[in-house]
Specification:
Elements (H helix, E strand, L loop, with lengths): L2 H6 L3 H10 L1 H4 L5 H17 L2 E3 L2 E3 L1 H8 L6 H12 L30 H11 L10
Antiparallel strand pairs: 1-2
Length: 136
């Protein structure tokens, strides 16, 4: 694995092992090193020449986001990665999650409401009570 992919999340090795165990479905092979090489190759190719389908842009970040997906998303991620590897297009399930556009407020927050980090920051910044132990 390379540094950029590893930085995307710790579950990538688990996802690659899972892909190797499901070779009968996704046909990426059973050798984890070969699978990683193929997926990094896809990431590098899309970094050089991103593909666009409608308003969806598939680039290296898109590949990294699928590789770092949660186990509950592995089936969808595998289907979409294989589709793009074969020259096809991903299904609609990865729209927004894999978009090249960065999401606001960091930590990959959804575009709705506040996430926990944002909520805590807002409460701490608007609290008018004292900040010393004596005030508590």
């Amino acid at each position: 694995m390379d540094g950029d992919i590893e930085a995307a999340g710790g579950g990538i090795d688990n996802f690659v092992r899972w892909l190797a165990r499901h070779d009968g479905e996704y046909h990426l092979g059973t050798d984890r090193v070969a699978i990683v090489k193929r997926l990094i190759g896809l990431r590098d190719e899309l970094d050089r020449r991103p593909r666009a389908v409608g308003d969806e842009v598939m680039n290296g970040d898109w590949v990294a986001s699928l590789l770092a997906s949660r186990p509950s998303d592995w089936v969808t991620s595998a289907i979409n990665l294989v589709s793009v590897l074969e020259g096809g297009t991903p299904g609609p399930a990865t729209k927004a999650r894999g978009s090249a556009k960065r999401r606001p407020f960091a930590y990959d927050a959804p575009r709705r409401g506040l996430n926990g980090l944002q909520y805590d920051a807002m409460i701490c910044n608007t609290d008018t009570s004292g900040t010393s132990f004596a005030d508590m």
